[in-house]
Amino acid sequence: xxxxxxxxxxxxxxxxxxxxxxxxxxxxxxxxxxxxxxxxxxxxxxxxxxxxxxxxxxxxxxxxxxxxxxxxxxxxxxxxxxxxxxxxxxxxxxxxxxxxxxxxxxxxxxxxxxxxxxxxxxxxxxxxxxxxxxxxxxxxxxxxxxxxxxxxxxxxxxxxxxxxxxxxxxxxxxxxxxxxxxxxxxxxxxxxxxxxxxxxxxxxxxxxxxxxxxxxxxxxxxxxxxxxxxxxxxxxxxxxxxxxxxxxxxxxxxxxxxxxxxxxxxxxxxxxxxxxxxxxxxxxxxxxxxxxxxxxxxxxxxxxxxxxxxx
Amino acid sequence: xxxxxxxxxxxxxxxxxxxxxxxxxxxxxxxxxxxxxxxxxxxxxxxxxxxxxxxxxxxxxxxxxxxxxxxxxxxxxxxxxxxxxxxxxxxxxxxxxxxxxxxxxxxxxxxxxxxxxxxxxxxxxxxxxxxxxxxxxxxxxxxxxxxxxxxxxxxxxxxxxxxxxxxxxxxxxxxxxxxxxxxxxxxxxxxxxxxxxxxxxxxxxxxxxxxxxxxxxxxxxxxxxxxxxxxxxxxxxxxxxxxxxxxxxxxxxxxxxxxxxxxxxxxxxxxxxxxxxxxxxxxxxxxxxxxxxxxxxxxxxxxxxxxxxxxxxxxxxxxxxxxxxxxxxxx
Lengths: 311, 331
Fold this sequence. Notes:
The complex is a heterodimer of chains A (311) and B (331). Chain A is an all-alpha fold. Chain A has a domain of 172 residues: MetI-like (MetI-like fold), CATH 1.10.3720.10. Chain A is built from 13 helices and no strands. Chain A is flat. Chain A starts with a helix and ends with a helix. Chain B has an 8-stranded mixed β-sheet with strand order 6-7-8-3-9-10-12-11. In chain B, β7, α7 and β8 form a beta-alpha-beta unit. In chain B, α3 crosses α4, α3 runs parallel beside α6 and α4 packs across α6. The interface between A and B is medium-sized, with 25 and 33 residues.
């Protein structure tokens, strides 16, 4: 167990280091002169002399390797530099925005889990019957509708037509519901298929015949025998979906006027605010790696066969 | 007390319908088992021996429509036509099942103790704590060392032989009167086969249960069974007491089966004495004797009508072969 965790932690650190390298390279190789943009943002006329002065100020003349080492060294200590655009401290902005995005992803993950389990079980309990077909249809619909459109529909239905929920802002649980649902639709659709197919496969395993021969009923077999068997599978798929939610956040946060990381990232890209872009990318990647680490540990805890290999 | 058979099967026919095809794996078979008795059902793969025992108790894969006709009486109660909810109550409680492959018959992610104790909770109406105690008792009964530790383990931590002992413990947990063992030794090492068979035989005698032993191993039959039904192509070819059928087989198929067993005096490198030809497919009922195309004794009349299972020259043995039975009449 300890061996497994330490090994995975080492892997994760190597992965993080490589991810930081990719972040930096991508951003540095983006076209356009940052110094010109900053000069313009400051309201000055971008004379070559002034641009040169700005470039000197933000360290653009240093060798790339030096810039990377400087940036990474600061980032590790939690200092992501000063935003080119606003001049504020990026780390200070991040703290609040991470809470917003964290709320979005946590809520959506819970909702996606609940909906997908419900739909998947519905289908597995009445395979190829009406509930199964409905669940399958919903999954297809959910998986093939673009998220920005889902969000617009949610706002139209719940805010405009029925006036039940606020359409924007981050002001308490009531304002969280629509963004949560919007982000949860796609993962719920994908995961419901994982549950449904996993359960069906489990239900055709020989040990289910044993369970049936014991006199267990269908419900008991589904929950007691089949569910523990698909748990590792489900956790794996959920981990991937939760990791991908950072990408969805970039679309959904602006839609609901949430000032989260996605919104921050988008603004950073738009104004070539490289400090912000780099910081957000690094956080997204770290999140993905941490989620995967948690998934590996959770699978270890739910599947005795894997647990044994590492004990 | 030995008058009424525990399980009485009369003229059982099973039709299986899937979306694409219809087969009849069991065609008018009759047999019975009394308390304390062991009946062996022998036949090659696909001869319907498993379906015959599983279908009346509702143990068929989903997606297959099972149509039963004839009569299956368990303790005098007719099973055919009984709703699934009623049959479910009998499974585990009145009938215990043992499966062919212990490697896949246990749930891989649940502790062994739970898998056994769950049976006691379900059928004996005891507290979880008492069920745990019962599980421990059963693990000891099936001869497993270090029983306390075993209950906390998962199936993948045990060998095939140990797992089959666990499957047997599960089957016994509901205190059934009938044990149906579907090729319980086929998937095991030869050395373990004998141990498992001895264990089965031992618990069957000690608990005075009836046992149906489905197998294609004549050695298993000789060692464990009182009576035998030989199945060929969905029908019973011959049935009777094991000592009579194995010693002097009458039906050409039974003779072929027994003749096919390799003997110690066979010279090294000698050919296997198999039956020529292959068994028929079970798509449609066969008009005459199913064995006729492979049979040395076959006469043209064999292909005309299905031979009835009738008493042979020994009144305890029933044979479905007109040629053999005619010989008896002539004698």
